[in-house]
Amino acid sequence: MDIRGGVENGTDRKGGKTIEKMKKKIILIITLMVSLGVTAQVDIRKNAEAFSKGLQSKYKDDVEGAIKHFEEALKFMPDDAASLFELSEQYVKANRLEEGFDAIKKAAALDPNNKWYQMRLGLFYRNFEQYDEYIKIYEPLTAKYPGDINMLADLIDVYMITKNYDKALEKTDLLVKQAGADTRYYHVLANAYMDAGKEKKALSLLDKIKAIDPNDQYINISLLEFYEKKGKLDQAFDELIDAIHNENLDFATKANIYEYWFNKFQDTKGIDQQAFKAGNAFIEAYPDHQLGYLILASYYIKRDDFQNCKTMSLKALEFDHTNYGAWQYLVLSEAPLMETDSLLKHAQEALQYYPNQPVFYWFAGVSHALKKMDNEAIGYFEKGRKYVIEKDLLADFDSYLGDLYHSVGEEEKSFEAYDRVLRVKPDNALVLNNYAYYLSLRKERLDEAKTMAQHAVELSPDNEVYLDTYAWVLYQRGEYAAAETQMSKAVKLLKQPDKTYYQHYADILEKVNKPEKAAEYREKAKALAHEE
Predict the structure, then answer these.
(1) 137 CB burial (10 A radius; 0-12, 13-18, 19+)
(2) What is the Cα–Cα distance from 397 to 414, expressed in whole angstroms?
(3) Which one, 68, 92, 123, 255, has the greatest CB density within 10 A?
């Protein structure tokens, strides 16, 4: 028997073709197996290639390219959870939120044990405000990974959003155990309990913070807020002072708390004494910083304690020579102290730092005027008025300029300045008086002078200066009887003898035929002149 030949020919002794059929079937199966094997390898390879390209595009911030490649990877392997995970992120960046949501839901379903897939799905639920779904994911996650404090913190945040404070407290206790003396969430919870009207629980938490960390940097702030909401302002202020002394709390926060408190309660009884305590607390805690000294300078200026205000202002300038508030308090305190030389020096120094601030031109001008340096004073007032925005302050500058221009004999400029004032402040009694008097001396525009002088007296009827001016204007107009009436009032109001008033009165009395009384007042005027 030729077995080799029989096999080769596909026949056997029985004359059938069984061998041939089996051979063909085996060949077919092998072919199919090979074919299937090759196809699987190609799909995996192409999926891997597309996924790799997607990651490259992702790292280049090429969102559209990344989406294209991750979608391509999914064509070769539709159940590729990793590609779905990455694709969800890119969809979000492309503002395709719903598609991103669908992608991460599929990824999480394909691999429910993957922490990162579940976390991202949870965050999607949170962002879509589906908090119940978020909690269903994060509660088992935090139980499975108790050491992940960030995940635990995220869950606490959602509990807070949903006002599930008791669960938030439970998880916060766990968080504090995991993170050591990290009491931030106790602060948040305490505020939440306060908002919910659960004050005892809030205070209990604040006490717990102190027990865990007596030097907690935010404990004084939380207690301040607690007592403030309860209306216990004295205890709240005590916490503010403790906060200033708290070495673990940064300076900027302390300054912000101070500003908040004194802006909110600036009209409250006793606020000045609180400012005094706070200023001293800042000086004790930060002796080389200007803030405490500025607070005390403000305190002293309000009490007209100009000497102490000056001392605190100079101290503040030692630490910050450019501090505007310190310069302002300094000149404001030196002016009433009549320290003219010092005031002039400091006003000029302040102008080196603040050349556009009218307040320093004002005091430089005032200082020169007090030193009888009228032309120099005019220079400062004229320059300073250019930087004034408020109409009332501009009127004050022009009022001073009107007097100064008169003193140097420039009457037209004086009257122009007075006119500017009266356009803004028609009831400025001082300017009305001075304008009227200077016009009477020149015997000009006496009708206007009478109107202005009369209005000044109406505004301040018991002012002897204004009555004297009104009387003298009437005298210049020849209204002697009316002049006598007004001058008599002025003389009666004098607090001490004055030769000018007596001279005016004497001149008026002569015009109304009262020579003896006129002589009496003329002698009084001469006597006062000899005493000078």
Answers:
(1) buried
(2) 12
(3) 92
Cβ–Cβ under 8 Å, residues 483 and 508: yes
- Residue 13 has what pLDDT? 34
Tell me the CA distances in angstroms from 371 to 57, 263, 325, one per residue in order.
78, 40, 26
Confidence tier at 179 by pLDDT (50, 70, 90): low
Question: To the nearest 10°, the Cα dihedral for 99, 105, 110, 113?
Answer: 140
Measured CA to CA, the distance from residue 270 to residue 492 in angstroms comes to: 43
Own/partner contacts of 103-112, CB < 8 Å, gap of 24 or more, are 106/81, 107/81, 107/82, 110/79, 110/81, 110/84, 111/81
Q: What is the pLDDT of residues 99-124, one digit of tens each?
A: 999 999 999 999 999 999 999 999 99
Percent of the chain beyond pLDDT 70? 91
Q: What is the pLDDT of residue 308?
A: 97
Dist CA 285 CA 241 (whole Å): 10
CB burial readout 441-465, b (16+ within 10 A) else e: eeeeebeebbebbbbbbeeeeebbb
Counted residue by residue, the chain has a size of 532
Taking a C-beta distance cutoff of 8 angstroms, is the pair 136, 106 a contact? Answer: no
Structure tokens given for 19: 């061998």
